[in-house]
Design goal:
Cytochrome Bc1 Complex, Chain D, domain 2; 7 helices; respiratory chain; transport; C-type cytochrome
Length: about 140
């Protein structure tokens, strides 16, 4: 019974990962990531050096999107808005005005489907623990 309950919990948590990332084109996401994201976030999702140290303008370098970073700490909706609208605009929409982000907006550059494919690719690279943790941050639809 305990084994079944654990399996059900893992399945339910994974299911909450959000329908936005389910059934996405991971290969297209990988290609789009390489074309539009890797220049700042690294070809291997490693981010920029000293990504936790702000520059002289108070802006943090691009963080890693692999399991060593904090991308998996955020829900799908924020990750999508952050990419589409840019970091500062996405955070301001959530009432966070005191954080300077260097993340540009990709609205008009990437379609919504492209953004979801990129996010699905990024998530696909995380170990199960990080995937489950991130899934738990998403609200059921």
């Amino acid at each position: 019974m305990i084994r079944y309950s654990l399996l059900a919990l893992v399945w339910a948590t994974t299911a909450q990962a959000g329908h936005e990332l389910e059934g996405r084109d991971i290969d297209a996401g990988r290609t789009l990531y390489a074309e539009t994201c890797a220049a700042c976030h690294g070809a291997n999702l490693e981010g920029q050096p000293d990504w936790r140290t702000p520059d002289e303008g108070g802006i943090l370098p691009a963080p890693p999107h692999d399991a060593t970073g904090h991308t998996w700490h955020h829900d799908n909706a924020l990750l999508f808005e952050y990419t589409k609208r840019g970091g500062s605009a996405a955070l301001a929409a959530r009432g966070i005005d005191d954080f300077a982000s260097g993340m540009p907006a990709f609205e008009g550059v990437l379609s919504d489907a492209d953004i979801w494919d990129i996010l699905a690719y990024i998530r696909s690279t995380w170990p199960p623990r990080e995937q489950a943790a991130q899934a738990g941050r998403n609200r059921p639809h």
